[in-house]
Each structure stands twice: as structure tokens, then as C-alpha cells.
TrEMBL record:
Protein name in the entry: Protein arginine methyltransferase NDUFAF7
UniProt keywords, alphabetically: Methyltransferase, Mitochondrion, Transferase
Gene field: LOC113398133
Family affiliation: Belongs to the NDUFAF7 family.
Main location: mitochondrion
Source organism, top-level taxon: Eukaryota
SUPFAM superfamilies, alphabetized: S-adenosyl-L-methionine-dependent methyltransferases
Gene3D superfamilies noted in UniProt: 3.40.50.12710
GO cellular component, one term: mitochondrion
Subcellular location: Mitochondrion
Cross-referenced InterPro entries: NDUFAF7, NDUFAF7_sf, SAM-dependent_MTases_sf
Record keyword Methyltransferase present: yes
EC primary class: transferase
Molecular function as annotated in GO: protein-arginine omega-N symmetric methyltransferase activity
Length: 436
């Protein structure tokens, strides 16, 4: 019999019944997120074990993948386990050296805001707040300028629960974890009633008029390392040698990061080595867009260069430079910030999207001197009770501005709303121009 007669003989309801699914699914009860618990830390694999397993399964790691594992692993990551800042840690930051540093930054933000508006209500957003010392010094100055609890709020971008708790204990009279469905995962309130919120991503911070502070934040963001060979740009990877130790190797072929990242203007000039952080470029663009669309200022302070360096990846342990591939998880991984790349990512463009007016980078010693930091230094010296205290204050300041220490290595860069361009031509920005 011809096939078409067979199909004609079948009624439509029968065909539908044959194709209909009966109970082809199963209802699964989802667990309550509030009852989930982290695994026992004693059972967690070491950072080295995690890295070895990833290399065995997926092959060599990019430097960015390696940094991400070492820094942010939930149980064994460098910033997840302990307080790493200060004399007893692996490195020290400018706010920990002298209160003058945070006070000068507060004066800069306040003075530049007056060129735009009153600056109330105000969000203060800090990326990677460390020990919260900078915020404490900044709040002390704002109190002198008349800011009250209902005039401002603090928004801290911090991925480490250990550091969140440390910051909360220093800043807040009360604090607590929040519901998982809120954009912030921790909240608190200072003695004076200022609300404080913690986030694991800048994208979750409300879009309002804000001061954005990124002090020694960009230098820890994962980088991809590249080297120019006779066959073109190739990526530096990390693999295991025959003794199960980590070592570098150059990729034989173009990797995806080479194709997507190493292109003009990022590879401009005759550079033979290049470091690019996609996350740094993305966050710089976020900051610029927020400042331009919702108002405010962003200030980046970090050690870095303006595009002249290519190989800066290293590690710090107990204030000394060590091999970044040795004992992963026990030392601070870092790379100098390429401010020329941040400028490219954040600057005004001739198209419809304007982003921000970008100023800098300028050397830390120049920024502080232009902000008349020595005037404040003298006040602190005059207020000191003993000669020993006076000498300590002087020594701390010299560490900040000495060209052989932090004065030249650390740089400042600022983002202003694009609408401020004409105003800045008439009233030069403090810290980024020489006072007349």
C-alpha cells in the first residue's frame, strides 16, 4: 500500500495523542538558600592542589586565571583568609602610614565637588577598602565640613568576608549579614548614624551622585601577559614542570585573549611585552559612565606607569618581593597599573557616549604637594606632644613623597563628568595642575 494512504487513514486525534508527552518532567524541591552552609574549611583543598587539578584537566592557565584562583578562592584565597595589610602583613598602604593622606583626599573631593554642586546627599563608594582607615580619616574631615548622618552613606565593594567583618568592626556600632536577595550582603551603621553597605560587585551599588575611591585596587586585578615573538604576539601561560612545580611558557599559537585584547590602541608603540587586565578596563569604564551619567568624581591612586612598562607581575610576602609562582596563596600577587589603558577605557569619545574627562596620571608627591599637604603636615607636627612623635610624623610624610619610596611610583588619576570640561578649563583641577 502507498505510504500516503497509510497516513490518510490515521485520524488527526490519534496523531496528536501519539505525540503528546505524558508526565515527562519531575518536580524538584529547591534547597532553601538560607540553610546552605559552607563546607568544612579543614576539608578544603589547598590552592596548589586546585591549580594542579585545573592544569591537568584544562591544560596551562593564563596568568589572569592563576591570579583569580590565588586571590579569590572562597576558602583558600589570599584575601579571604587573613588580614594582610600593615606591618605584620605583607604590605602597607598610604592611609596606614599617615592620617594626612586620607585627609588630603577628603579635601580634594570636597573642593572639586563645590565646582559642580553642594554634594548632598552623597554616596561614598570605595573599591577594596582595606582596613577602612582611609574612610575613617575622610569622615573626620567631612564632619568638619558639616556633613551629617542623613547627608551621606558609605558603599564598600569588598569580596572578602574576612575583610568585611574587619571593616565593619572599625566603622560601625552595629552590623549584620543581610538577606541573600538584597544587592548588598552586609550592612551596618556608624555611631553617628551613617548607613554602611557592602557589595561584592560595583554593578550592585546604586546609581547616585557619588565619590568613588580606588586606592591600591586596580593593581590586584587579574592580568593577561603577552610577549611579541617572530610569529607575532603570544600569551604567557603557567604550567607544571616534570617536578610538579609551576613555570611559565609561551603559547605556541594565538590564544583568544591575543585576538580580543592585543589590538590598537592597547598595543601601540614598539613594546615587546604587554600586560592587559580586562577587568580593570571594564571597571574603569563603569566608573567613567557612572560619573558622567549620575554625577560625582572618581579618584584612582595606585602604583603604576603610563604605558612604558611591560613586565611588572610579581608577589609580596612580609614586605619583600618574592616569586609569584612560589607558595601560591601565601603572598600578594600584583602588577603595576597601566594608566594609559585606563585612560583609553574611560575617556570621552567623539561618539554619542561621552564617558568622562580623565586627568592624570600625576605622581603622588606632585599631587600631595599641589594640595598643600605640607601645611597640614606642620599642623600635625605642632600638635605632637613629644619630639619622638614629631619625628615619626615627618618620617611618615617623607615616605609618601620621597621619589625613591612612594613619591614617584604611586600615581593619581581622576574622572570628572564630561559636562565639567569647560569648567575645568576656567578653574583648573586641584592636585592635577600647578597652583598659580
Amino acid at each position: 500500500m502507498n505510504t500516503r494512504y497509510i497516513f490518510r487513514s490515521l485520524s488527526r486525534p490519534v496523531i496528536l495523542n501519539m505525540c503528546r508527552r505524558h508526565k515527562g518532567y519531575k518536580i524538584i524541591k529547591r534547597p532553601d538558600p538560607n540553610t546552605l552552609k559552607m563546607p568544612n574549611l579543614s576539608d578544603a583543598p589547598s590552592i596548589m592542589d586546585i591549580i594542579k587539578e585545573k592544569v591537568r584537566l584544562n591544560g596551562p592557565l593564563t596568568v589572569a586565571e592563576y591570579m583569580n584562583i590565588v586571590i579569590t578562592n572562597p576558602t583558600e584565597g589570599y584575601y579571604m583568609k587573613k588580614d594582610v595589610i600593615g606591618e605584620t602583613g605583607d604590605f602597607i598602604t598610604s592611609p596606614e602610614i599617615s592620617q594626612l593622606f586620607g585627609e588630603i583626599l577628603a579635601i580634594w573631593f570636597y573642593a572639586e565637588t563645590q565646582k559642580m554642586c553642594l554634594g548632598k546627599p552623597l554616596q561614598i563608594v570605595e573599591l577594596g577598602p582595606g582596613k577602612a582607615t582611609l574612610l575613617i580619616d575622610l569622615l573626620r574631615v567631612l564632619n568638619r565640613y558639616g556633613y551629617k548622618a542623613n547627608d551621606l552613606s558609605l558603599h564598600l565593594v569588598e569580596i572578602s568576608s574576612t575583610m568585611q567583618l574587619f571593616q565593619a568592626n572599625r566603622l560601625c556600632a552595629t552590623h549584620r549579614e543581610t538577606d541573600l536577595f538584597l544587592p548588598y550582603n552586609y550592612e551596618g551603621e556608624t555611631v553617628s548614624g551613617i548607613k554602611v553597605y557592602w557589595y561584592n560587585d560595583l554593578k550592585k551599588v546604586p546609581n547616585n551622585f557619588s565619590w568613588y575611591i580606588a586606592h591600591e585596587f586596580f593593581d590586584v586585578l587579574p592580568i593577561h601577559k603577552f610577549e611579541k615573538t617572530e610569529n607575532g604576539w603570544r600569551e604567557i601561560l603557567i604550567e607544571l614542570d616534570e617536578n610538579e612545580k609551576l613555570q611559565y611558557r609561551i603559547a605556541a599559537n594565538e590564544t583568544q585573549p591575543v585576538r580580543t585584547l592585543v589590538r590598537p590602541p592597547l598595543d601601540a608603540g614598539d613594546r615587546m611585552e604587554l600586560e592587559i587586565s580586562p577587568r580593570a578596563l571594564g571597571i574603569a569604564r563603569q566608573l567613567a559612565t557612572r560619573v558622567d551619567q549620575y554625577g560625582g568624581l572618581a579618584l584612582i591612586a595606585d602604583y603604576g606607569h603610563n604605558g612604558e612598562k611591560g613586565d611588572t607581575f610579581r608577589a609580596f610576602h612580609k614586605h619583600k618581593i618574592v616569586d609569584p609562582l612560589e607558595n601560591p596563596g601565601n603572598s600578594d600577587l600584583t602588577a603595576d597599573v597601566d594608566f594609559s589603558q585606563l585612560r583609553i577605557s574611560a575617556s570621552m569619545s567623539p561618539g554619542a557616549e561621552n564617558y568622562a574627562v580623565v586627568l592624570g596620571p600625576v605622581k603622588q608627591m606632585e599631587f600631595l604637594e599641589r594640595m598643600q599637604a605640607r601645611v597640614r603636615l606642620q599642623v600635625l607636627i605642632d600638635s605632637a606632644k613629644t619630639d619622638e612623635d614629631k619625628e615619626k610624623i615627618k618620617a611618615s610624610y617623607e615616605m609618601l613623597v620621597d621619589p625613591t619610596k612612594m613619591g614617584e611610583r604611586f600615581k593619581f588619576m581622576a574622572f570628572y563628568p564630561s559636562a565639567m570640561a569647560s569648567i575645568l578649563e576656567k578653574i583648573p583641577p586641584l592636585g592635577f595642575s600647578t597652583p598659580k
